[in-house]
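Attaching the record inline, Q. Sequence:
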Amino acid sequence: MSTVLIIDDDAAIRQAVSTILGYDAHRIVEAEDGIRGLQAFDIEKPDVVLLDVKMPGLDGLEVLRMIREDRGASTPVIMFTGHGDFQTAAEAGRWGIFDFIEKPGEAEVIRNRIRNALRQVSLERENSTLREQFSIDGDLIGDSPAMRAVKQTIERVAKTQARVLICGESGTGKELVARAIHRSSPRSAAPLIKVNCAAIPDELIESELFGHEKGSFTGAHAKKIGKFEAADGGTLFLDEIGDMPLAAQAKVLRVLQEDEVERVGGNKTIRVDVRVVAATNKALGEEISEGRFREDLFYRLNVVPIDLPPLRERGDDIDQIALSMLSETCQKNGLASKVFTPDALAALRKRSWQGNVRELHNLVERVAILSPGDEIGAVDLPSQANRSLAGGLRDLIAATPTLSEFKDLAERAYLESKLAEHGWNIAQTAKAIEVQRSNIYKKMERHGLTNPNRAANEI
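Structure, as predicted:
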C-alpha cells in the first residue's frame, strides 16, 4: 500500500482529497501546515507528497526546498497552485517538482497525477534494485551464470602472475576483463598499458612493442620507449593478438621466455617485469592450423583462458547493463535522470546484439539523448524490423571502431544470412558461396552459429 502525505492548511481540501484517493486504497497522512508536514515526512516516509503552495508559516516552496536540499529526498511532490502562478511554477521547477494540480482539482486529475507519480517511484526503485546488483568492480556488470564464472576466474587469477588469454566476439568487453584483472592484482599501482595489435601497421608494430633507437630506421628521429618497457612492473594488454604479424610474434615469444627486450636498432638487452594479458576475437586454433599464429606463443599466452560469452547469451544481464549505461550517459551529458520502462527492457532483451555490449552502449546513448521524457519506453527504441541494408550497415559501422571488428561482424551476419537462405544446409551453402564445407563448420563454431531448427527439435 502506498503512502500519500497531504500538506494543506485547508481542512476541507485535505478531507476531499483523502476521500478521492481512498478509492485507490492509498494510506493517507494529513498535515495542516509546513512544519507538521515536514515532521510527518520524516516519520512516515511517504511515497508521494501533495503540497499546497500558500500556507501560513512555511509556504509550499520552502517545504519543497527543505525536502530536496535538507533531506536529500527525491520523493515525487505534486503542488496545489492557483491559476496562472507562473513564478511559483518556475521556482518549484528549480527544486524538482513532479507535477502541478490547479485548485480546486478534479477527482480524476488528482488520481491520475498520483498514479503517474507512483509509477515513477516504482520504476526508480526497480532501477535502484538492479543497480545494487552491479559488480563491485564497476565495469563487469551481470549476474548470469556465465558472468559469475568469468568473475570467479578473474578473482582467482588476478592475485597471481599467470598470463591470461581472453577470447570472445568483438564488443563483448575483453578490455574490461583485462582492467579488472589488473585492478585486483598486486600490480595495480603500476601502469596498465594497452596495445591494439590490429590497429598498428605491420612495419611499425615491433617499434611500438619494443621501442627503437634514434636513427634505427627512416623517421626514427629520437629514441622511443616501447610498450613492454612502459609496462615494466605492471600489466601489458595485447588486444587482438590474433592480428599480430608472425615476425613480431617470434619476438614477443622471446620476451615472454627471457623477460627482456631489445629495442629496434639497438644491441642492448633491457630487463622487464611485465604481466601479459592478451585478447582475441579469432579462433586461434584455426589460425595456428593455417599458419597465421605460432603454436608456441599460444601456449605461452593461454595459461589461464577466459571465454567471454556474447551478449545474446546473457539475456539476464541486459537490464543491469542497460541501466548502468543509461545512468552514466545521463551524467556524462548533463541530462536529467532517465529510466527504462519494463516494456523497453523487455524489448532490449529480445534483440540479437550482433555488436554485443558495444552495440548496446551506442543504442542506450542514442535514446538517452533523443528521448523527450524521463521515461524511455519500447516506442522510443529504434526498430530492428524491416531495416534497409544501408541502415543495417550504418548500425554495424557505428558499432565497430576497427576494420578487423567490422570484418568479423560482417562475416558472421553474411554467413548467418546465407545459411538461413539455404535452410541451414551446409553443403548447399558452401557451394553457393564457393567455400569448402570444412570452413563453413569452422566459421560457424567461431561465430557461435547453430541451426535454430535443430535446436527447436531438440527441445
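The longest strand covers residues 275-280. Residues 313-382 form a domain with the Helicase, Ruva Protein; domain 3 fold (CATH 1.10.8.60).

More tomorrow.
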